[in-house]
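Margin note from the TA: students keep mixing up input and output lines. Inputs are the sequences; the output is the structure of the whole complex. Example:
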Amino acid sequence: MNIKMDKLSLHFGNHKALEDITFELNEKKIYGLLGRNGAGKTSLLSIIASFREPTSGLLTINGEVPFENSKIMQQVAFLYDKDYKDESDNIIKMLQGVQRYRPNFDMEYAEYLIQRFKLDTKKPINKLSKGMQSTVNVIIGLASRTPLTIFDEVYLGMDAPARDTFYKELLKDQESHPRIIILSTHLVSEMDYLFDEVILIKSGKFLLQEDYDSLTSKGVRITGDQELVEELVQTKVQLNEEQLGNTKSVMIYGELTNHERKMAMDQGLDLGPVSLHDLFIHLTEEENVDEKLS
Amino acid sequence: MKNFPKVTADMFWMQMLWTFGFLGVMFIINIIKIVIDLIQGTEVDGYYASVLIASNIYMVIIGLISIYFLPYYVGNGVTRKDYFKGGLLASFGLSLAIPIITFFISIVERFIVTNLLNLNFHVIDINEAVLDVDGNIIGDLVLSVILTPYVDPGSNWLLAMGVFSLHLFIFYLLGWFISASFYRFGTLTGLVFILIAFIIILLKDLFLRISLGLPLSDRFSSLASLPLGVTLPGIMLLIVFTVWGIRLLTKRVTIKM
């Protein structure tokens, strides 16, 4: 499956929710879509799921526009923090409904997940707790096994053990039934190990798309003598700096050459890794970071 | 792969389930009324007439609810077009099923009431009621919804059921039309669509009364001579306009999350 966004924009009057978003997803991987609140994650995902049309730009899935395309729409599942206050069916009835419209739906697997999450099958869904309702979304998303599955902040209200079960089952099923999964989240530190690739958006604009490992290897924290640190980082994209006395610590984005690494070691500077969580915070916080990156 | 046959079946049976509830409640009310009439020895209002009057409002209500199937279906990867087609076919089926079920229940009821209980049926004069409220457009409107032009199934059962079905179908469509406009545009513009719906109801009633040769209120009496060649296509046009409106309203609508 190929998902291609070409200058995708979404405007509400004067407000630009998305602006010229261009990127592509090709492989059966887990993609982490990261961005702060209001960055446009849900807007972008709702366009991919044909919930709405973009104001301008082109989205294609396997070369076709997905909006009102039954062949494509059937293959895209979009799970989000849905309001279930009017849903009086129980989970089994609900899944039977979903099964009718999702060709790859696996009811046996869904039942296994219900047991795994200890979900009450008798209770109507609107009587379940918020966390349990989120679990319903997780089960629908996993068991539908659509070639493109989108989980948008789907864990809201789920407690830590339930979230952990979700992550484990997600990885397990992805291994046996690979597909494109997009996880949109701001629980970065908790979910980073799930991502094969990371897409960052900021204020409606595309910031970067990188392999998880190469992205995290680009973040380096250099700590040591103020002057030496400043000399080393002056040509780099600096995300954050802290100082205590004469000791300075700077977080940079961009790889160090072997020569630079060796020099830093020789000068007694400390080079430390930066977590995706920290990169996320500083890449999305920093002003003009998109200009610096380009 | 086309999904609309599945949508049709699902929406039809879902709404049919509600309909059995509705018809069941009407049936119980009718039995209670018969028991009271039996005690008092008065004439009985038939099941057919009661359902005929109540079902128009019932159809408006389930028409209003039918927009809520839209986010469900799109969320399950079904196109707006398949939802529209399925919903339309289901409502058509529903409009046929209700009169048929009602007709059969009323035949059994008529047999029991007249032969076993020795009671008479109240003679219905729904069509004359329109003459009682003259010079009041609101009165006309309310009557148009409650008391639609009526054909006695005893005189021509096929025509009677056809007219019954037609009413149900149009009322469902108008409910759907209004809720689709609210979903698409919000409350304020939605109110304008309610007004449009009322105009459609008035026109439909007018055309139907003229077609069936039923009495008209004074306001429209000059139109009584319109030929069938005008009034029947007129009714058809109203249906097409409403169906087309629903499709336009839902064709590219953003699904609320």
